[in-house]
Amino acid sequence: MSTPRNINVKTSSDENDCWITGITVSPQNQLFVADYNNLSIKMIDTNSGTIKQQQLESNPWDITIMTRDTLAVTIPDIETIQFISFSSNSFSLKHKLKVDGQCHGISHHQGKLAVTFLFPDKLQIIDLKGNIQITVEKDSDGDSIFSDSCYVTTNSHSIYVSESVKNAVIWFNWQGEMIGRYVTTGRPYGISLLDDGSIFVSDNKAECIYRVSGDCKDRTIILENVDGHRAVCWSAETSTLYLSTDSDNTESNNIIKMYKMM
Fold first, then answer.
1. Which of 37, 43, 201, 249 is the most buried (most CB within 10 A)?
2. Are 147 and 138 in contact (CB under 8 A)?
3. What's the rounded mean pLDDT across residues 23-35?
4. 107-134 burial, b for 16+ CB within 10 Å, e for fewer?
5. What is the pTM for the complete model shown?
């Protein structure tokens, strides 16, 4: 990885320092972030640093690209998924889905949403009309699978959930069956899939970014001594890894770090 480039995503209208809990990148290489502390979604031009901002009615958590011009955002406190359309320089709020819990992580693939919840802890697969197709809460022994599943990422055949309390990345298929898990001594937060099916994982406790194989058997450390981080997003088009800051120094939380894969 290259030396990181820092992007400051705090705007003049922000009343608080940022807390970027979700990141995604569009096929047109537009960077979007969920700013929990400022109740907003932001679109950042990484070349010019220009920021467009959309205020929301409550604090957003995670964000996913739906189509070339639509985002979906989880808003936990009001148990809602908000759809937002975007162009090159503007946002427009669309419809909302009411869900049955505090939704956090979200990932879209081919007309389905994989959504993780806290209170109650679960994974749901939901269609775009809000119909619940599958709910996953317990394993085959009847034990709860989740305790703090803040993030999820998907491809055509797999769903991966980061579980920061149970210290694992958990692998499911789209039928909701648990296939495997990678257990770590750290605290995995943000996760993002690569084209080869492996997963970048942001481990806040271990202060590193590592890459877990798609079968959850192997791990390679990509970045070490990365203090205070949360959300992560990989852009295959530009071979760039985006990482949000999560530090006791709240001013540093205004920064998104960009790493180019060498």
1. 201
2. no
3. 92
4. bbbeebbbbbbbeebbbbbbebeeeeeb
5. 0.95
